[in-house]
Amino acid sequence: MIAYDRQSLDNLDLQQHAREAFEKGLITLEEYDRIRATYPYSFYLPNFFIRLGLFVVTVIAAAAVLGLFLLGGMEGQSTLILGSITILVLELFIHQRKMNGSGVDDALLWVAVILFLAGIDFIGTTRITPAVESGLVLVLACIAVLRYADHGMTLAAYGAFLCLVFFTVGKWGPVARALLPFLVMSLSIGCYFLFTGLYIKTAFRHYRSCLYLLRLTTLLSLYASGNYYVVHELNGTIAGGGGPISLAWLWWSLTAIIPVFYIVKGVQKKDVLWLWTGMGLVAASILTVRYYYHLLPTEIAMLIGGIVLIAGVYGLTRWLRTPKHGFTAAAAGQPHPLADGLVEGLIIAESFREVAVQPADGGTHFGGGDTGGGGAGSQY
User: Fold this and answer.
1) Can you tell me the distance from the alpha carbon of 327 to that of 51, in angstroms, rounded to the nearest whole number?
2) How confident is residue 337, by pLDDT bands cut at 50, 70 and 90?
3) Fewest C-beta in 10 Å: which of 35, 63, 191, 214?
């Protein structure tokens, strides 16, 4: 299903693990070089700035080509044809030029998806509702993620999923709209467990970065669906006006409790995703309170919020200097790759491969010749 060479993807992931192990001093430079030489990959991976430049240049080139077609008048079918041509060019760049996150393939993918979406909208004889539009984006983004494992498309797919739920349930009446935050929270929890289960499966190893990003978005959507500001503003948008909302005490409680819950679970689960998400959402909770209650000037409130965050990080770091629940402030941001023996097993295998078997020394060996050896052969 995925467009990129699977062996190269595995080797790239292995080299990244080996580099982390080398940076932590767990393997030597010779072992690291040996792993890199034994497990090469063929992808073109430029740095961030080159990737950004190639993305911009590709978008400009694609816009110039599309401008020529716009001059002649574009219809839905021609837009779909251009999208198909863009996908063909993308596949050629991936298989011939070994592009993988180079900026060129990223831009071509986005251009192709936009062309397909525009082509479907042009062909439609009736006005497409927001719910249907969200469904189209969800389908196209999911196909793009399965084929190219693109992070941007991953975010677009999950955002379209939430929009689909919002626009669909919003039409079911006041009771459904009142229950919408609880529905989104339930879906966020369910999606988190689904993505976490897929993350640990070997069959989905090439999508782990996308699944990791999805786990983060589910935590954010869970918080957003219980945040007082989000609930209040969306309720005003749907109802066509502002004013107080029901169960305000519950939304304020969730706004304050969920970030603390994330931090505690992050320490217990030894998962920095929960930990850093909770720390970031503490700031969001402070800004939410500040938006509705102007107790202090803005600069003073921001200063206090920064002091609280710094103090929290400092206190947590001090507390984790002594490992708690197998989690310590000295640990890396991610569980170390040597934990599953991946790189360690390769090092051992490569070490044994380098060892040559030497024959045992049998002592003094005589000539064994006819006359020069004096008849001292192997037989009497």
Assistant:
1) 36
2) very low
3) 63
Q: CA-CA distance, 193 to 158, in Å (whole number)?
A: 15
For residues 322 and 316, give the distance between their C-alpha atoms in angstroms, rounded to a whole number: 11
* Ramachandran category for residue 324: left, alpha or beta (phi over 0 → left; psi -120 to 50 → alpha): beta
CB 345 within 8 A of CB 25: no
Asked whether residue 229 carries a pLDDT value surpassing 60, the answer given is yes
Tokens of 294: 């102007």
Asked which of 221-230, 245-254, 284-293, 305-314 is least confident by mean pLDDT, the reply is 305-314
Angle between helices 208-226 and 248-269 (to 10 degrees): 150
Give the whole-angstrom CA distance, residue 5 versus residue 10: 9
How is residue 181 written in tokens?
A: 């935050």
pLDDT confidence band for 88 (50 / 70 / 90): very high
Q: What is the chain's mean pLDDT, rounded?
A: 82
pLDDT-derived band at 91 (thresholds 50, 70, 90) equals very high
pLDDT at 260 over 80: yes
Residue with tokens 């991610």: 334
> Alpha-carbon distance 150 to 55, whole Å?
14
Higher pLDDT, 56 or 319: 56
> CA 55 from chain center: how many Å?
19
Mean pLDDT to the nearest integer, 167-180: 85
Q: Is 201 left (phi over 0), alpha (psi -120 to 50) or beta?
A: beta
What's at 93, amino acid-wise? F
Which string of DSSP letters, residue by residue, matches 340-374? GTHHHHHHHHHHHHHPPPPPPP-S------SSTTT
In the structure, what pLDDT confidence band is assigned to residue 66 with cuts at 50, 70 and 90?
A: confident
For 229, 289, 304, 311, the CA distances from 296, given in Å and listed in that order, are 19, 11, 10, 20
Cα(380)–Cα(375) distance, integer angstroms: 8
Cβ-based neighbours of 131, under 8 Å, separated by 6 or more: 164, 167, 168, 171
What DSSP letter does each residue of 170-183 carry, written as one string? TTS-HHHHHHHHHH
Sign of CA dihedral 150, 151, 155, 158: positive
- Which of 104, 109, 93 has its CA nearest to residue 61? 104
